[in-house]
Amino acid sequence: MITDNSIRRLAYAGGAERMNKDVYDCIRRKINERIHTILTKVIYLTEYGSRRIITGDDILYVMNILGYGRIQLSGTKEKLANWSLKGYKRNLGIKSLK
To answer: Which pairs from 13-16 meet CB under 8 Å and 24+ separation?
Structure first.
């Protein structure tokens, strides 16, 4: 669980000076939604690759596809570029894999 103090520290680091007490639950919901979205798509990726283990590179790859910042990959992009990902793209609803 994400504590109020951790949310407060992140907000202060981002430049916020004050926060309403209702903000904490809203932020928790949004973080949980993003984590759910990322993990759902990572599971599609591992199932398509006939694997059972999710790696950190899988998570970084999906986050990169979804546009959550520029994250450096350690060789995963090159490995995945060789796959035929037509079914994977359809399941994820992604138009193009970079």
So the answer is: none
Alpha-carbon span 74 to 89, nearest angstrom: 22
pTM of the model: 0.62
Question: Which residue is associated with the tokens 């359809």?
Answer: 90
d(CA 66, CA 68): 6
- Nearest-5° Cα angle at 82, 47 to 38: 40
Q: pLDDT by residue (tens digit) across 28-63? A: 999 999 999 999 999 999 999 899 999 888 888 898
pLDDT (tens digit per residue) in 72-90 = 555 555 444 444 344 444 4
Token digits for 57?
A: 């590179």
Rounded CA-CA distance 20/22 in Å is 5
DSSP states along 72-87: --SSHHHHHHTS--HH
